[in-house]
Amino acid sequence: MKKENILNILLEEKIISIVRLKNGELTPQVIYNLVKGGIKALEITSNTPNFDIQIKAARKKHPNILVGAGTITTLKLAQIAIKAGAQFLVTPNTNKATVEESIKADIPVIMGAFTPTETANAVLYGADIIKLFPAGQMGISYYKSLKAPFSDTKFFAVGGIDLDNTEEWLNAGIDGLGLGSSLVKTDINTNEELNNIISKAQQFKKLTK
After folding, report:
1. What span, in angstroms and rounded, lies between the C-alpha atoms of 118 and 166?
2. Does residue 88 sit in helix, strand or coil?
3. For residue 164, which of 129, 137, 158, 173 sits 20 to 30 Å off, Cα-Cα?
4. What is the pLDDT of residues 93-117, one digit of tens each?
């Protein structure tokens, strides 16, 4: 799939589910339940055990969704993720080398930035979308202030997003949201928690329509 097509899907879906798990063995079931709940874009973070293997497996089992790599803080992690077949990269930090690597691989990068300077640098480096992180600490008013001088830049808010504020963020004009523990808990370990992923995903999806 071409980079432009991947970007269009990310912006249309408006939701990326962040899969960060302590127990990596649960990753396939978590992803299955997310897909069942309607999620079409997810990132498997680099601090999930065997994240590269999980990316390969998810790409094979779920060819109709986007599988990216998250928490890509270094060039080395970017290279591992791309080799595993990640369709996009997500970073918490502003890193030129990661953008350059994603450009070589012809996949989008959603680059973490918090300040105007970090945002400007990420845009200059060639980031496709800015990941406003951590978004919850500063809130929507900060996003609006940051968006004003970067009106042509696409932003995803990550950190502190839940069912109670998703609609508010979308109404404020945010281009997309990264959903972490509000959808998938890091320490998930019971069948009830696994099953709850389906209904929660469905609830988030309804809010984006």
Report:
1. 24
2. coil
3. 129
4. 999 999 999 999 999 999 999 999 9
